[in-house]
Hints:
heterotrimer, A: 285 residues, mainly alpha, ABC transporter involved in vitamin B12 uptake, BtuC, two-stranded antiparallel ribbon, 74% helix, globular, B: 327 residues, disordered C terminus
Amino acid sequence: MLQVVEFAANGLALGAIYALVSMAITVIWATSDVLDISSGAQATFAGVVAAAAGMPWGPVAGVVAGILTGATIAGVFQMFHLRGALKDPVPIILSTFAVLIMIESAILTVVGPEGVKLTVVAGVVEVGGAIILISSLVAVACATASLVVVALLLRFTPIGLNMRASAISEKSARLVGIAVRQTQTFAFVLGGVLVGIAGVVAAMLVGLSYSSPFSLTLAGLGGALLFGRKTPQAAFLGGMLIGLAETLGQAYLPSGWSAGTSSLVILLVLATSRNAAIAFSGARP
Amino acid sequence: MSKSVGRNAGVLTIVMLGILIVGQGHSSLYATAITVGLYALLGVPLGLIYGCGGVLSLAQAAFAAIGGYASALLFSHYHLPPEATLLPAIIVPALFAYVVSRPILRLPEMSMALATLALGLLVEVVFSSSGGLTGGYEGVTGLPPIPIVGNSRVGVLLLVWSAVIICVYCYDAFRTSARGRALIAIHVDRLLAESVGIPVARELSLLFAITAGISGFVGWLYAHYLGYIGPGSLNVHLSANLLFMVVVGGRKYSLGPVLGAAFFVFAGDWLPGSAQAHGMVFGALIVLVLLLVPEGLLSLVQSRFRWKRVASRPIPQSSQLSPEQSL
Amino acid sequence: MKIAARDLAVRFGGITALDGVDFELNRGEIVGLIGPNGAGKTTLFNCITGVVAPNAGSVVVDGADISNHRFDLRVHLGISRTFQTPRVNAHGTVLEAVMLGFNPIVKKPLFGSFFGSRSVRKAEADMESRAHNLISELGITTDPTKRAGDLSLGALRLVEVARALAAGPHYLLLDEPAAGIDENDQGVLANVIRKAAKDGIGVLIVEHNVPFVADLCGRLIALVQGRIAASGEPSGVLSDPHFVRAYLGDSNAG
C-alpha cells in the first residue's frame, strides 16, 4: 500500500511536467493549427536557464526563457503567414522540428553532455508512512495551478474567448472581427509560459540534458492526444496519465522499455481511433 | 513523354561518373558520396510517397534499422552470409510496414507523421532494450562486408549510386504511369480517387511497403558497409533528417531528395565548428529554406531552366477546387 | 439490367435524410431527381455510389446486391459519378483529368509501372489518344493541355462528365451537373447526356434546375423530406400539388 502511494506520487510528479507540456501543445494547436514539436525543447531550454541562474531567481528566469522561445516560434509562424505559406502546415511543423534540433545542439554545445539540476526545495514529508518528496508536491501544485489559471483565462477573459473562437474556426473568428493573428501569437506566448514552468519543474524534479527535448515533446504529444486534444483539462489528465504509466513501466518493465510508453500511447490512440477521417480532419492530428 | 523519363536518371549517371573521376584525386570524396547515396536511397522513395502521395512518414530509418538488424542477427545467430540475408533484409521491413500501414495511412497528414514517429521510436526502444537478442545499446559488430564489392570504396560507391539511379528512374516512370496518376489523385482528394475505382488503402499500403523494403535494403548496405549496426545508427533523428532532405531538396521532384541529401552531407562537412554545434546552423538553415523556398532548392533550378516536360513537372499540391474558386 | 434500390433509409444522428425510398434506374433511360434543399437527393445519390452506407435497405445492380460494397469497387460494376463541387487535380491538365477516368479499365502492373515497361508505355499512349477522342466526341472545346485549375466551372463539369464516361460505365450519376454554368455549356452537357443514354447508359441527374431536367428526362422523381413525393412523366410530377407545395414552400429559403 505504501509503495502504491509512493508510486502514485512519483508518477503524478512526472505527469505534472508532461501535463504542462501537453497543455502548451494543446493551446497552440487549438488556436493556430500548429503542432509545436519544439515544446519539449523550449521546456528544456527554460529548465537549463533556470538551473544556470540558480536560486532564488532561477524559476523566474526559466519562465522568462520559456516566454522568449514561445515568442520566437510565434515569430516564425508569423513569417510563414507573411509569406502566405500557411495552407500547407507541414513546413511550419518541420520548422518547429528544426528549432528542436537547434536547441538540442545549443544545449549540447554550451552545457555539454551532462545533465543539469535545480534544487528548489529539499526534504520529504511522510504521509502515513509513505515517503514523498516535497518537490513532487510542488510539481503537482504548479501543474494544477497552471491548469486552473489557463482554464479560467479561456473561460472568463476576452482573449480567452477569442482563443476559443479561433479554435472553433479561424475563418468565422476573422469574420466576426477577431484579430486572429494576435490571438495566435498570444497562444504561443501562453504556451511559452507553460513550457517555462514545465522546464523549471523538470529541472527541479528529474534534471535536464541535451536528450530531454525529444522525450518531453513526445510525452507532451501523447498527453495531448490521449483524451482528445481539445481542452487544457484533457491535456492535463493525459499528461498525468502518461507520467503514471511511465513510472509504472520503470518499476515493472525491464530497463529501457518504459521509454516507449508515450510512443505506444500515441500509436494506439491514433491507430484505434474510429472514424479517424472525421475526428482528425484538417491539419490537426 | 517516355523519352524524358530517363533524363533525371541520366543526369545522375553523369554526376556519378564525375564523382568517380574527381574522386581519384580526392579520396575522401568517395566516402562522402557513399553517405549521400545512402541518404538519397532512403530519401527518393520517401519523396515519392510524400511528394506524390502525401504519406508523411517518420519511420523510414526504422525500416532501414529493421532490415539491417534482420541481416545482422541472421549472421550473428545463424552465421548466414550477407548474400543469404539480403532477401530477408528487404522482405521483413516490407511485411512489417504492410501490416502496420492500414490504421496509420488512413490518418490525415500530421497524424500520420506523429504515428510513424511513434512507430519509429518504438522500434528503436525494442532494438536497444532487447539486450540478449540484439546486443542492446552496443549493437552487433563484426559483420562481413558487402558481397562482391567487398571493402572497395569504388565498388560500394558504384553499387549505392546505381541503386539511387534506378530508384530515380523508377520514380519518374511511375509518376507518368496510370498508377502514378492514381497516387496523385489519392493525394489530391481521396474521394476523387475512390470515385474512379482506386482502392486507396491497398494502394498506399503497397507503396509504403515498397519504400520500407528499399529502406531495408539500405539498412543491409549500411550494416555490411560499416560492419556494425546499433540502435543509434538508423534512428528517429535520421528519419527527421530524411524528411528535411526531401523538403529542402524539393519534394515534388525525383532529384529533390538527392539534392537534399547532398546539401546535408556537404553542409555537415564544410560547416566550421564542432559537429555538436552544427545543429544550430542546420536548424536555422532549414527554417530559412522552408520559409524562402518552400518548394525546395530544386525548384530554383527548375524554374530557371524551364524544363517543362512531363517528368519534371512539379507534382500538384493537394488542392481540390474549393467551391469559392469554382463558382 | 438496372439499378434497383429498395427501402433505403439513412439517418445522420437524429436527422432522417432518407426514409424508405424505392428507386430504379434502367439502362438507356434518363431520370431526374429533384426536390428542395435537404430533401435527401444527394444522400440517395451517395447511397447508390457507396459514399454513404444506408441504415436499412438494399442496392442491387444488374441482379447483384452491392449494399455492402466499398465506394471504389462500385465503379468496377459500371457505376460512374460526378460531384456537386467538381473534384479535380487543379494542377494537372484536362487530358490527365480525363485519363484518370480510364483507371478501372486499364491494366496497371506494379513492376511495369515502376520500370516503364513497353506494355505500360503503350497502354499510356493508347489512353492518351482515347482521351483526346473522347474529349472531341463529347464536343468539349477546351484545350486538353490546359491546367484544370484554370477552367471555368462549366468546362470543369464537362471534364468531370468525360472522366466519368471514360470508364465505359453502364450507369452515369451526375450530381447537379448544370448548376452554375452558362447556357452554352448546358447545351453541350444536354447533348452529352442524350448521347450517353442513346448508347445504353442509364443516367441519373440530381438537379435544382427544373427546366433543364424536365426537358431532358423521361422520368422525374421528386423527393421531399426523405420520401418520394411524386414520380413519373415530367409534366405530371411538376404539376403534382403535393410536390409543388413542398418545392415552392422551400424555394424562398434558397
